[in-house]
């Protein structure tokens, strides 16, 4: 099947859909571009159906799940708009005709927009509660997979300089095991742009089952991950299905990590300052 035929395939299979699935199909066909930036929960809410109806719609389309659906939808839209430009398909803004100076300006503006949108989404009460949880926690585990794992690792790299209670595992199996033995005094800090990654959801489920508090950084206020979270912190920037791991998404996440780090440092200044001196001194001889 050519990429541009995907929307036609939805039309051709329309009679196979249930009543709820037809609502999803109608919404997708009416505004496919908007769907690209909706979580499965957002789409379900817009169609006034359950998440499972959206998932069944994907299965009726003979797809593995929602992410594959969005990827094929994105390719289909890109083919219709400009089948000759892969760059346009990837970004929707940069074109093959742009000079390197044009590209630099557009990339800069994209990242600035991501930071501004993230700032506009800040809920200071939720952020303050997050710091309270972190200060009171016995242990803090930062979880994430894919590019969000890199953000989780960066977070640990920052916080380990001022507190010994931060941890991270790169392996998804180890993450699930670590989450399963957390205590009610511990905190699971989960980072996921989509909020719908299976490994991440499993970690959140295990952490809640163990009685730990869960804080998440995600793009979507309503997603499978937020259902298991005590605190939800939203990051800005819209990342299409073909832009997984985009720099703008990570920059928006890192803005939040920096903000949380600085507030944690401020509230625990005496202890954090002393630890910062110790950790800095520990690596001093390693520098020329």
Automatic annotation (TrEMBL):
Keyword set includes DNA-binding: yes
Pfam family, one: SIS
Keywords: DNA-binding, Transcription, Transcription regulation
Residue ranges of every copy of the HTH rpiR-type domain listed in the record: 4-80
Domain of life, per lineage: Bacteria
Domain SIS: 130-270
Name the record gives this protein: MurR/RpiR family transcriptional regulator
């Amino acid at each position: 099947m050519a990429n541009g035929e995907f929307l036609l395939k939805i039309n051709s299979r329309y009679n196979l859909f249930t009543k709820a699935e037809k609502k999803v199909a109608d919404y997708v066909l009416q505004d496919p571009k908007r769907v690209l930036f909706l979580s499965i929960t957002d789409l379900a809410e817009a169609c006034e159906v359950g998440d499972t109806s959206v998932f069944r719609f994907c299965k009726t389309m003979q797809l593995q799940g929602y992410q594959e659906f969005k990827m094929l939808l994105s390719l289909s839209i890109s083919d219709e708009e400009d089948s000759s430009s892969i760059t346009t398909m990837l970004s929707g803004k940069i074109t093959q005709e742009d000079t390197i100076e044009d590209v630099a300006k557009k990339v800069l503006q994209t990242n600035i927009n991501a930071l501004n949108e993230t700032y506009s989404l800040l809920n200071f009460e939720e952020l303050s509660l997050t710091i309270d949880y972190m200060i009171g926690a016995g242990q803090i585990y930062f979880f994430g997979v894919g590019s969000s794992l890199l953000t989780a690792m960066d977070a640990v790299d920052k916080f380990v300089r001022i507190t010994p209670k931060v941890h991270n595992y790169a392996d998804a199996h180890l993450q699930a095991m670590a989450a399963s033995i957390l205590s009610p005094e511990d905190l699971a800090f989960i980072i996921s742009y989509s909020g719908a990654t299976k490994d991440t959801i499993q970690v959140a489920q295990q952490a809640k089952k163990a009685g730990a508090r869960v804080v998440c950084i995600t793009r979507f206020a309503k997603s499978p991950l937020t259902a298991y979270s005590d605190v939800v912190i939203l990051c800005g920037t819209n990342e299409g299905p073909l832009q997984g791991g985009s720099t703008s998404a990570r920059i928006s996440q890192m803005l939040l990590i920096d903000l949380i780090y600085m507030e944690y440092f401020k509230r625990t200044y005496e202890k954090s300052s002393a630890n910062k001196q110790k950790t800095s001194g520990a690596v001093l001889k390693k520098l020329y």
